[in-house]
Design brief:
With 225 residues, this protein is an alpha/beta fold. The chain is built from eight helices and twelve strands. The chain is elongated. The protein starts with a strand and ends with a strand.
């Protein structure tokens, strides 16, 4: 997921960038409200995490400008402005959620999952299932046959793409776009490397494989036939 962080405190911004990146997201940080607004207006953004107290243009100004421009990108305020009136103003002005500082990163991740799930097109799901494999999108956990599977963030993101498209062949290029945002040289072996690790966890300990390769085309996950 592509996340914009509008935060003028360098320490907080770096904490968010590092944590969200480790959670498998692509993160763009801006310390100025006008720069953050410009990025949201002219780029594909899945979520904006915005501080209310920003130089150039404050967070409320960013939100109102986005909504006036017809942009429905989800906005989550992350701010020290913790008064009830502040929260009411933010939410009634079009923010999708409001979290005050100091905050727990696990709560931020949970709120991100809820906000983006509400905004996603189609059926709202928390758990993806293929045969005896389950992926909990909110808790960020995986299980197969009742056995917990420990996945790294990119492995989780890779499996999520496959399971959301169960029964369909997903090309290597599509995986680079959806999981790595084309930040890697197309000639890289990053897809193959992560797919091998994912299979070692999802398929090898079990009797029947779920992830299949179509040579020179891509990958597909489906129940045993």
């Amino acid at each position: 997921m592509k996340i914009l962080v509008a935060e003028d405190d360098p320490t907080t911004a770096e904490f968010l960038r590092k944590g969200l990146t480790q959670a498998g997201h692509s993160v763009e940080c801006h310390a100025d409200g006008r720069a953050a607004l410009g990025h949201c207006l002219y780029n594909d953004v899945d979520l904006a995490i915005v501080d209310r107290m920003l130089p150039g243009l404050d967070g409320m100004g960013v939100l109102k400008a986005l909504r006036a421009a017809g942009k429905d990108v989800p906005v989550l305020f992350l701010t020290a402005m913790s008064g009830v009136d502040d929260k009411v103003d933010g939410l009634t002005s079009g923010a999708d959620d409001y979290l005050t500082k100091p905050f727990h990163f696990s709560e931020l991740l949970a709120r991100i999952a809820v906000v983006t799930r509400r905004q996603a097109a189609g059926p709202q799901v928390q758990t993806l299932r293929v045969h005896d494999l389950e992926l909990d999108l909110l808790a960020r956990t995986a299980r197969r046959g009742g056995v917990d599977i420990a996945l790294q963030p990119k492995e989780f993101a890779l499996l999520e793409v496959l399971m959301r498209n169960a029964g369909r062949i997903i090309t290597r290029t599509m995986l680079l776009e959806k999981v790595w945002d084309f930040n890697f040289d197309p000639r890289t072996s990053v897809v193959e490397t992560h797919m091998s690790r994912l299979r070692a966890k999802v398929d090898k300990p079990f009797a029947e494989p779920l992830i299949h390769t179509t040579r020179n085309v891509g990958y597909c996950i489906h129940a045993p036939r």
